[in-house]
Predict the 3D structure of the following.
Amino acid sequence: MGKKAGFNKNDLNALGFAALLQNIGYVCIPQGILSNLDPEEQNALPEFREHVDFGAQILQRQRDIDARIVKAVLQHHERWDGTGYNQKLKGEDISVFARIIAIAGTYHSLVSKHRNQQPFTPPEAAEYISAYSGELFDPELVQIFMRNVPFYPKGISVKLNTGEIGVVTDSNIGYIGRTQVRVCYGRDNVELKRPYDLDLSKPENQSITITQILDY
């Protein structure tokens, strides 16, 4: 996303560090909150919300750290419409690094398995991000996200609604969930002697969908 937003090498390095360090404040949070609660439950607790302040404080004590990294760690739970925490910032008052991390972090959380939540499929998570464009997330950055992130990366195994199993050979970036798949196993789970390629973005294949990711 940073590349597509026009960031230079220095910007990208700072963005990468901010993303890696976004939750460093967790070291100051009681471990029971982290291990026993799902993300939605965590975010409702004032004690958990303090991790952004703790993280910024930890980084501010380090020598020669880019101020943009500290700001991104402090603001990565702020939301476009001002409903985030802890400063209730809105729109472009939020660091652009934090706005990117907000999208990436939400997507990662949605496609991950939690104690009381089955993971969303990548297209479902992308649709969630899109639905909250202009509300929770910067609409311009959402467009960059939707146009450039491969929701089914090349090489992963998937099961189709036909019962067949194959490997994603092309993500078809920009077509949410409509990848190219090399079908290797038939409906009976028997390996095909002649695997064949299926482009789900083609109109004739619109009824075929990916129902399960086998090794995401």
Observations:
- The longest helix spans residues 96-110.
- The longest strand covers residues 191-199.
- The chain has a mean pLDDT of 91.
